[in-house]
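One-letter codes give the sequence; backbone shape is given numerically. An example follows:

. . .
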Amino acid sequence: MPALRNRWAELLLLSLARTSMGVQFQAVGALGPLLIGTLVADYAALGTLIGAYSLVGVAVAMPAGWLLVRFGDHRVLLAGLGLMALGGLLLALAPGFGLALLGRLVAGGGASVLAIVCAKRVLDRFSGTSLAPAMGLMLSAWPIGIAAALLLLPLFGEAWRLALLASAVLCALALPALWWGIRPSEAATPVVSAWPARLAPGEWLPLLAVAVLWSSYNAGFAVVLGFGPALLVARGADPAEAGAVASLVGWAILPLLPLGGWLAERLGRPLLACALCTLGMGLALLAWVAGAPPAPMLILFGLLSGPPASLTMAQLGRVLSPESRAFGVGVHYMMFYGGLAALPPLAGWLRDLTGAAAAPVLVAVGFLVVALGAVGVLGLCGVGQAAMPAPASRPGRAG
């Protein structure tokens, strides 16, 4: 089978797949005001559909390494995209909430596998100084997809089923490109042999702190994108305008997503940078709720959201030894997907309970407070120094 030999070209294909994943994930939130009273009955149900996309990841994360070794990167990658396309089709055609929920679960299962495969491929194909920018570019594809969904899907208006169908078609269009361009990794890791590994006693607390940080940060980000358009509509915007304004978050995160974390590492204070950016994200949201103009506050929120993403993933690499990495990464992703599945419905439930359109955004601020606490735990554990050696390295070698 022909395949790409240039690793940067392969990275672009993987980014295409992750862009389609971002569009599909955000489709429900982008169309939220149009789905209320049609496909879903209330905001709690809307939050359930948003969170369901990540629910299957709780079960998929742990055995994902075994699947990769048993069936290979190429097959698992295509299977993930196929499930995303199938689930998206079920959602677009669903006559009611039950089948819509099933479609989100199917698509989310495929997306969970896709996310893990993409991360593995980048680690296989890049190393040294090229790893950080490559990982940043891959991560950037997700908010690009989210921003595109917020900007474009509300333009379908009352034809929201066509918008959902378009998000499924985008996943299907990525299939032939990846079938042609992705070959089995030359540096595959024997995950099966490492699967019985467990964490060393000193690794549990920092790993859990990183997982809580990643889950709460992403849950806050997802709630703002999922419920932000509804707040804008409640304050007088039409759905298309609300989607365009909310999409500013996805565009604003892009400049500092690949570069912000790298800069913080170079300055030697990654945890301090992560804490300050997270605090700034929360303050921007509070200012928006208090009446500040939404566009500049959402741009500020998006800009500050960039550095914590790469900085958090860098901490994951520091807290795990090579022997425990397969098991530890599974624990990390299991908690990540569990948080994304469980926390957005809480925001929707409080929206229904209080009747306040701003309630979900305040819940997102609460999630960011939890993230700040996790950063503090990492600091107490002594994790996060930029010059800290990697677990398998000799003393004095950069991590």
Summary: Residues 186-196, 386-399 have pLDDT under 50 and may be disordered. The chain has one domain: 7-380. DSSP finds 17 helices and no strands in the chain. The two ends are 37 Å apart (CA to CA).
